Amino acid sequence: MHSTAATMTQPLTLTHGGALSNLPLFLALDAELFAPLGLDVFAAPLDGFGSTAGRLRDGSAAIGTTGFTQVLADATSPDPLVAVAGSGLRGMAVLGRRGATLKSLVGATVGTFADDPMQVLLADVLAHYGLDGRVHVRMMRSLQAAADGLEQGEFQSVTTIEPWISFLRGRGATLLSDGTDVWGPDYPDTILVARRSVVDTAPDQIEAAIKLTTPKYFKTTFDAALDASTKQPGMIDQRRNQEFILGRAQNLKDLRYIKTLPTADIFDWTMLNEVIAENADLYGSLKLKSA
Fold it and tell me: Is residue 3 over pLDDT 80?
């Protein structure tokens, strides 16, 4: 497959989350970069937290950016999601109210998001610091609710993402964990996923999307988004994070979201490999590694 443009077919519905790591997609949409590649793209609005996963699972969206845990949770579906490229690194955190410490969370209420990498991060942070079972964990409905709940004292701590992390820290929230203490410096946040049926039948569309992968999309201040951009770099090539993502499947099993651990079939780097190979001059002496 070496075509430079996909054949225009029916509109391709993309879905996305509210994290800063979706910025490459937003910029491509705003700059109208899809049409020259033969793609008629519609970006579904984000109705609420979890709507991205819902659209991907019910088939109303064929491709999009979402938390890396979605490919793990969806592995046993008849037409499962597969990871085809990356989107962003890092950009998640456990925040506390001003002056909070991890030890001060004992007996406190901590907010997080169900079926999301942030819930897995919180579980690993609590286990790492000996707090597992010693806090009250409550699921939240939106990133705005998380911010409001932390500032109003409904939660002593919340998990959230950039640019909300920078926004809340600018208003006095305390950083308790940025994820690097338990997951290392280059852990993935969002990835580009597609239905297996789309990967098999319309690979040119996905390859075109990978090639492309403003403030109006984020509800925080511009200064917070600008500050956040230095803390959550985009990264399309996340082949090296495959084992990390598979390793988090045990977390989802412990949290009772899945019963069976998935295999490497949840990844398909074929189109990413081709995009990189076709643009090898941009990568200098990059040597492709087999997926």
Answer: no
Residue 289 in any domain: the answer is no
Tell which residue, 161, 160, 158, has the closest CA to residue 108.
158
Contacts for 135 with CB less than 8 Å, ≥ 6 apart: 105, 106, 107, 108, 109, 110, 126, 157
Please report, for residues 157, 194, 266, 286, the alpha-carbon distance to residue 16 in angstroms, rounded to integers and kept in the order given: 25, 12, 19, 30
Structure tokens belonging to residue 31 = 């700059």
Report the C-alpha gap between 246 and 243 in whole angstroms: 5
Burial of 172 per CB tally in 10 Å (0-12, 13-18, 19+): exposed
SS3 14: strand
Q: Residue 163: is the preceding peptide bond cis (ω within 30°)?
A: yes
| DSSP element (H, E) containing 190 | strand 190-195
Residue 134's alpha-carbon distances to 86, 101, 131, 157, 239, in angstroms, are 34, 14, 5, 13, 36
Tell whether the model's pLDDT for residue 203 goes beyond 80: yes
What pLDDT does residue 219 have?
A: 55
Q: Structural domain of residue 40, as residue ranges?
A: 12-89+187-283
Question: What does pTM read for this prediction?
Answer: 0.78
* Residue type present at position 222: F
Non-local (6+) Cβ contacts of 171 within 8 A are 151
Whether residues 83 and 191 share a domain: the answer is yes
Taking residue 202's Cβ as centre, other Cβ atoms within 10 Å add up to 20
